[in-house]
């Protein structure tokens, strides 16, 4: 649910200490450059009094911050997927009235192509990325993990489904840099204004363990707030120093809510 994990060696590479108001009022740490619509999730680390402040981001490709996070994550995951082939599926602009028409007519047929190939050649897993040609029309770059796939069969199936005839299929070896390949194309995605469906992949393309997302296990008293994490810190931790664990993740040591602090002061 949340976008961060508990503090520890895995994320200790990015630790800085700031007074909470600095996060909002300084140009260096203003909300610009982050997911500006992010909400805040807080939870006390079980067995202690430290509070972890995490972002809950929008995760949309149209968000510059979230798109960069998604690009890095997908590119890293592709290293583990072990693709064996690159496949490019093109569309003929003459067959469509607009780039959006071409996308709507062909994107949903990519899984249909894969199902057809599976019937003939067994397991075929894929990740599909949409890129726009200079003409504005889409074409699809795909990382494939499969056994042998005849180029002629793939071409004929794509033509049968879409009436588009040009495909490029090539094998890759262990020297293929999937991270660089994905980053090259994914970095352009937030520029496609008429769709937010830039990437799709088959259920088994990535290793199951690699797809597990961080959650709130290990935290107690979890709460969600509509405000941005930087704004939340300025409101709930004025004057406190906070330890930055990640781009929008913070640790507030020995955190005592004002309501509890006031009751304690009464004794």
How are the strands ordered across the major sheet?
1-10-11-3-2-9
CATH architecture of the largest domain: 2-Layer Sandwich
Structural class: alpha+beta
Biggest sheet statistics: 6 strands, antiparallel
Number of strands: 11
Residues in helices, as a percent range: 25-40%
- Which H/E pattern describes the elements? EHEEHEHHEEHEHEEHEEH
CATH class of the largest domain: Alpha Beta
Number of helices: 8
Summarize this structure briefly:
This protein has 267 residues and is α+β, with helices and mostly antiparallel strands.
Structure description:
There is one protein chain. The protein has 267 residues and is an alpha+beta fold. It folds into 2 domains: 9-58 and 215-266, no CATH class; 64-195, Alpha-Beta Plaits (2-Layer Sandwich), CATH 3.30.70.1910. 31% of the residues lie in helices and 24% in strands. The protein is elongated. The protein starts with 15 loop residues before the first strand and ends with a helix. Residues 4-29 and 259-267 have low confidence and may be disordered.
């Amino acid at each position: 649910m949340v976008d961060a994990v508990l503090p520890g060696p895995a994320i200790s590479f990015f630790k800085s200490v700031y007074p909470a108001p600095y996060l909002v009022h300084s140009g260096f740490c203003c909300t610009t450059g982050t997911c500006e619509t992010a909400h805040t999730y807080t939870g006390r680390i079980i067995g202690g009094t430290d509070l972890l402040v995490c972002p809950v981001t929008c995760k949309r490709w149209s968000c510059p911050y979230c798109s960069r996070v998604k690009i890095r994550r997908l590119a890293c995951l592709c290293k583990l997927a072990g693709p064996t082939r690159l496949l490019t599926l093109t569309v003929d602009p003459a067959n469509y009235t607009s780039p959006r028409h071409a996308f709507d007519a062909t994107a949903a047929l990519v899984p249909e192509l894969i199902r057809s190939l599976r019937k003939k050649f067994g397991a075929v897993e894929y990740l599909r990325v949409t890129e726009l040609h200079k003409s504005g029309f889409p074409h699809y770059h795909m990382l494939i993990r499969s056994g042998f796939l005849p180029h002629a069969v793939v071409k004929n199936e794509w033509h049968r489904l879409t009436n588009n005839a040009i495909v490029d299929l090539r094998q890759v070896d262990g020297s293929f840099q999937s991270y660089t390949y994905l980053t090259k194309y994914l970095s352009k995605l937030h520029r496609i204004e008429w769709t937010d469906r830039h990437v799709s992949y088959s259920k088994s393309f990535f290793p199951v363990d690699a797809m597990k997302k961080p959650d709130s296990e290990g935290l107690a008293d979890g709460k969600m707030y509509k405000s941005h994490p930087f704004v939340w810190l300025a409101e709930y931790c004025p004057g406190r120093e906070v330890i930055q664990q990640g781009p929008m993740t913070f640790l507030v040591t020995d955190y005592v809510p004002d309501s509890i602090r006031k009751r304690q002061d009464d004794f």
